[in-house]
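Run folding on both entries below.
>entry_1
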Amino acid sequence: MLIKDVIRNREPYSTKATATVQEAAEFMASRNVGAVCVVDDEGKLLGVFSERDVLKRIVVAGRDPRSVRVGEVTSNLRAVIRCDETPHQALERMEQIGTRHLPVVDGERWVGMLSMRDLLRVEVGEQGDELKLLHEYIQH
């Protein structure tokens, strides 16, 4: 399985750097996601905006989420994962940089976001398939 299979048929969530933190937080909450990719007006990937950014850079700092722009408080882009890489490679990369989200790229084009939750679903699915095969083997 490749990353492109994990994110297949999923809408890629993003916000513009010019959006307010309030707008981005409402967008994330309405979709039940913990992070979104931040893009410029041309759709170029600039970074990742997460719940932790809201907590550390807005709430703790005592800033007004209605007046701060996402581009001012977005985490720097530290890593991406390519569509042709594997979930195992994604997990290793997340571990290396200490994140739970990775933007997904196809060549130079941003195409989506991968979360730790996505990788857990893959792992549980694979383990379920293995258990089913073992169960069938034992029954015969």
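>entry_2
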Amino acid sequence: MIERIMRENDMLEKEEIFSKVLRAGRRTYFFDVRATKADDYYITITESKKFTEEDGSFHFKKHKIYLYKEDFGAFAEILEEMTSYVLNHKGEEVISERHQKDFKKEYGSEKSEIQRSSFTDIDFDDI
């Protein structure tokens, strides 16, 4: 049993050739070069996102993409096209509720207006 586990660990270690990590808020991206059984290389991109429960415990959800050499060119070309499109149309500034404290959604301001108008001021003398 121990020998089998050691062999599996050796295979996993041999499989990972080169790695980089990108930490981005609650998300972490892992870029790994791995080897096939035939000793050819491919890339995995893993997104790991942390979720916190109400009780303070947490768990991670992971999503993985496998990218093989025959797809590198087309993948890189489309990724470049998509990132250029976003930057050309919206610039590099991040526009989101999470990144800007003064960001207001249209429906959010309406909702808060409704909440303010439905609130009744009560004085302790009224009780």
